[in-house]
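Show me any protein, fold above all:
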Amino acid sequence: MNMLKDRKFNLAVAGATGSVGGAILSVLERRDFPLGELRLLASSRSVGKKLSFRGREIAVQLLTKDAFDGIDIAIFSAGAPRSLEFAPAAGAAGAVVVDNSSAFRMDPEIPLVVPEVNPQAIADYKKRGIIANPNCSTIQMLLALKPIHDVAKIKRIVVSTYQAVSGSGAAAIVELENQVRAWAEGRPLAVNVYPHQIAFNCLPHIDSFLDNGYTREEMKMVNETRKILADDSIGVTATTVRVPVFYGHSEAINIETVKKISAVEVKELLAQAPGVKLVDEPSLGRYPLALDCAGKFETLVGRIREDESIANGVNMWVVADNILKGAALNAVQIAEIIGQDYL
């Protein structure tokens, strides 16, 4: 961080007791965010629960519309319904809201931001007092593609995702654990979170299906990509798949560019790209793995090669921790820029 060391900011975390809320606290600690007051907010069932932060215990308070007095920045990770209910109140109280849910992502008056991709969009928060965090799969994809887009202009993206169960919340993690244990012990596998068994399986079904045959998750990637890159001409098509992995989303990405760009040039660009770590020595068995990205801030990119079926095509494999860069880290990075440049 480049903030002035003598500045401190009062920050609230709405949804502090959830998995992403806990990750936000960890990221704030790991990045040494300059805090004054840290206010932890959640639903009534969590009020009074104490969470550890920087060696001290902080009691969780009730998330209400009046809970944001004196707060500079409020990071929401409490789900879309609560964001719709409480985020405008936080903004009205003078806080800048960074929202992790899908509630405001496609609102034309609310910026949708990946700090390494379109930090200039943060300035538009002044219209409503809210900044939206993109979908986790969109974030890691654009982190890898923006440097290429700047040089060769991407005209089409075809992406297939392989998404960890942690993207569905704590209950999905427990379900995968329980199903693996039951399978090993020869017991029936209980299926509650997903429509089918997730252990040893792949489900081409994330979120609900729409009339066009795509899921909401797939269309999020289409629409958010165009908004973040400010280019509605980019063709995007996605297939999103849930896989039996605990943490880390993986993506197979194929792009077609206007200008020819070689695999070597792509590797050179991504080796210098902020937030990206190039892991691309396949002959040595070195390429991005979900196991390797868990707990890491970087987005891992590898298996970069030219698409030999078209003139200007490139393939790659992109992996990132969906709870960190896909949610908590991206939100804290936005908060850092707000504090440094706007407050």
